[in-house]
Amino acid sequence: MAAAQPVDTVGELSGLNGSAGNFVDGKFLSVEEVYNCLRNKPGDINEAGRRMIGYIENTIPDEFLQLGVTIPITNLQHVTIQNSMSQIMESECFCAGNYVNFTRRHHNISLSCWSVQVPPDKVEEARREAFQVVQGMVGPRNAREYEGKFNRQFANSPAFNSASRYGNFKFSLPLSDLLSEYKEQHCQGAKPEFRVLGTAMYKQEIAHIVLVHSPMATEFRDLPSVPIVGRHANPLPFVFRSQEDGKFYWRPESTADIFKMRIFENRCRMRECPMSCPYYEERGTCFHCRDTYSIWNHLILAFHLPGNEPLWIPREKLLESLSACDILEPYLREEGTKLTRQEAEEIIRNLQYILVSVSSALL
Origin, by domain of life (predicted)? Predict the structure, then answer.
């Protein structure tokens, strides 16, 4: 195991329903560093921390964490429920969320949070790159034997899923568009700055959070900048901007939330249910064999909204970016807000009809 993080840096995340997880300011932690942080945290550890420790202990010897794929970040998504979607469309803006206070250093700062959205073609590209690494680890014959199982496991976590735990309504926008709007509205035309806000640790999810802020917001100078390095630097950070093109790249350690296939001692192997139950065959985990659950990485970009001012986006662009999505369990919003994707699609169609009708009437 790597050297432990200073234990006094570990804080508890508080959400709308109380304790939500744990947080370390100003650092993007590896899986091993998360483990050491939580294990050495003084006093009682919360439920999320205990669960995270258990999942890491099931996962940490697995060479699946050492594939080192690099994924370009071109799109972000913001998923929400119907009421919030309607407010966004009506107001033409995104306001600061109030679900979780991430950092102790900068408590109660106003943030609009967006998660990374990796297009299917980039997922496939990363999968091919990762499988080439596996072939080098275990040899071509063993790799070919497990190729199908590897493909099903790679990028099966919520970070890569088109469904969401946060609602049925997804706004998807190019990162470049969001940065352009943010630059004009909150940076007085200057380039935004990008800093390492920290690492959020939930039951299974390890989220690296990038803070986007105006260069005039000097209160964040105590946080390190997101590193700018060459694409061939060794080692590469978990999140970085390229010296060559200035773009963002992400290197998640774990892309899977269920490790049914292991890479251990230079061999691909399977974890099997001792009872051979059909639930395990379908889901990859069951009550007889719970050690297939794993930790998974996520990347969040948090846009600082000074003075609680919103981030304005033209309604036409919002409507173009809006789509319906399925719910992913466990659902993390109020149960009564859950819809089917078909219901959400119908709501969006009605909204499109209304907006088109209004626009036509104004001509």
Answer: Eukaryota
